[in-house]
Amino acid sequence: MKIGYVLLKYAPIHVARGTKAFLQSWNIQLLDWPALSPDLSPIENLWDILTAKVYAHVKQYDTFKQVKSAIVQRGRKFN
User: Fold this and answer.
1) Which of 77, 37, 31 is CA-nearest to residue 53?
2) Helix (H) or strand (E) holding 29
3) 43 vs 72, higher pLDDT
4) In this predicted model, what pLDDT tens digit does every residue of 58-78 receive, in sequence order?
């Protein structure tokens, strides 16, 4: 009897034998994530948008302070 289901992407940690064995030991069925499917997590989509804006035009930063400033500036535009 299955006690639950888990939907994981194909990140290496998710498809590792140890992960699969752990889930099987708890009778948790691993569901396949369809190839090229949209991410179901809204925050992931927001991070993708913000990352694209921060690194637009192949912009590179020299310091963490510059990256942080760019994130804050572009993040404010979401309001």
Assistant:
1) 77
2) strand 28-31
3) 72
4) 778 899 999 888 888 887 776
**Helix, coil or strand: residue 62:** coil
SS3 32: coil
pTM for the structure as a whole = 0.43
Nearest to 26 by CA among 53, 55, 4: 4
Residue type, 56: A
Residue 28, classified by CB atoms within 10 Å of its CB into exposed (0-12), middle (13-18) or buried (19+), is: middle
Task: Assign 30 to helix, strand or coil.
Answer: strand
Q: CA-to-CA distance for 23 and 30, rounded, in angstroms?
A: 7
